[in-house]
Design goal:
Helices cover 45% and strands 19% of the residues. It has 338 residues and is an alpha/beta fold. α2 runs parallel beside α3.
């Protein structure tokens, strides 16, 4: 085991958040600075890759400076640099990667590339200091919906994945057709609290028997067809009811498959990560089911559900502790598999 009091600088730029964080010993966050681009992309109803890259370029150095200042250290105090190298938007990834590589080279410090999904899972180590593998992880975000068997800090087996839209992507698209805006996840969650979740019975898609994969394109189409049918009838669809009904249908499938996977893999701990992990209904339904089945359930706080560099620094720390280190040929992989 290497030095467990390493100071890690984490850098994250995979989508529309530019973030830098400083961690001590992998789990103690000294700073976590996030420059969000949500307002920039709201007018377009989603992230525009070219615009995201330009804002990363403008934000990356000030964000790193702020993280170092907040942590009360200088670059010379950093022992290790961790950076997201995939998956994500290739232009966005390259900004963070180029910055991390140049710093590692100039400072002669170790460089560790981090898979974005491993970072999301690692957010729970920061939130729950007692948490250790093995466990089952559910990763739900704008780009991913995966059920993962985590056997140790650096070994993952994907048991189920989305075959089309990720859950967060479906939320964004449905929010758009409902006129709620962007980002869709929190807006649908808010609208659903004022609606009847049984007003419209959208089809739950479970795929083949015993499959742990997901498919959300059908329910997205179902919402669109329902809205069009109501319009043809001269009726105005209730936005809150539609949002609540859509959300319930999605979360019932996610919850059922997560519990099925935990029982199949004989896991007693379920860890949830990713932007959609902040959804209030998902948290409620999984807690009820895990309590009923006697499973321990772990969620990160909402700020650690979003893209952030603290989770990247944590993942980099555990990779480095196991002897993994990258060279300056480390490249960006927008479709990187876990």
């Amino acid at each position: 085991m290497k030095n467990n009091k390493l100071i890690t600088l984490g850098i994250e730029s995979s989508c529309d958040e530019t973030s830098a964080a400083v961690l001590l010993g992998g789990r103690e966050v000294l700073s976590d600075v996030i420059a969000s681009q949500i307002k920039v992309h709201q007018v377009f109803g989603g992230v525009v890759p070219e615009i995201a890259s330009r804002h990363h370029l403008n934000n990356i150095n000030p964000v790193i400076d702020s993280a170092l200042k907040e942590a009360g250290i200088t670059l010379r105090d950093v022992d290790l640099i961790g950076v997201t190298y995939g998956p994500g938007l290739v232009g966005a990834l390259l900004i963070g990667l180029a910055t991390a590589k140049s710093m590692a080279y100039a400072l002669k410090k170790p460089l560790v590339g981090v898979h974005h999904i491993q970072g999301h899972i690692s957010a729970n180590y920061i939130e729950h200091k007692e948490l250790e593998p093995p466990f089952l992880a559910l990763v739900v975000s704008g780009g991913h919906t995966n059920i993962v068997n985590v056997s140790d800090y650096n070994h993952f087996e994907v048991l189920g994945r989305t075959r089309d839209d990720a859950a967060g992507e479906a939320f964004d698209k449905v929010a758009r057709v409902l006129g709620l805006g962007y980002p869709g996840g929190p807006l649908i969650d808010k609208a659903a609290k004022e609606g009847n979740p049984h007003a419209v019975e959208f089809k739950r898609v479970f795929l083949e028997k015993d499959s742990l994969d997901f498919s959300f394109s059908g329910i997205k189409t179902g919402v669109l067809n329902y809205l069009n049918t109501q319009k043809l009838k001269g009726l105005q669809a209730n936005v809150n009811d539609t949002a609540a009904s859509f959300q319930l249908a999605v979360m019932e499938v996610i919850t059922a498959k997560t519990i099925m996977a935990a029982e199949r893999m004989n896991k007693d701990k379920v860890v949830v990560a990713g932007g959609v992990a902040a959804n209030s209904l998902l948290r409620q339904m999984l807690k009820e089911e895990c309590d009923r089945k006697g499973l321990a359930l772990y969620f990160p706080s909402p700020i650690l559900c979003t893209d952030n560099a603290a989770m990247i620094g944590c993942a980099a720390y555990y990779k480095y502790q196991s002897g993994q280190e990258d060279d300056y040929y480390l490249d960006a992989y927008p479709n990187l598999a876990l």
